[in-house]
Design goal:
Keywords: Signal. It comes from Chryseobacterium pennipullorum. This is DUF3347 domain-containing protein. Helix content is 72%, strand content 0%. It is mostly helical and 125 residues long. The protein has a domain of 65 residues.
Length: 125
Amino acid sequence: MKKAFLLLSIPLVAMISCTNESIATNTTTTPVSKQEAVQKFNKAMKEVVIEKEPANAKRTSSMELSDYKKNKLLPAAKELISSTGISMKEIEKQTGGDKEKVLTWAVQVYGEYNKQINQNYQSEN
């Protein structure tokens, strides 16, 4: 599970930077709150990629996010999931508080959002 999440997150980060350039500036099919949540999650992912680990952080393999970085992503991930209409209580219930499950779920929501935006952009052109 960890390896799958990490392998998914690396190309996703690369895709994020490319996708942002092609996102339509006026989206009418998605609520503003979801758009803001996506932007916050996107920003958090970029910060995690750029940010260096603190000296006291537990070292992990290069493919695995440290607990420190997972904790940095978690608030934005929960906000993104809740922007789809799911309550924080339901998020905790479905994931059992597991950080990796929350992050995986957020990556799925993020991917679906970007896919929808790209489809809307392509249909307009």
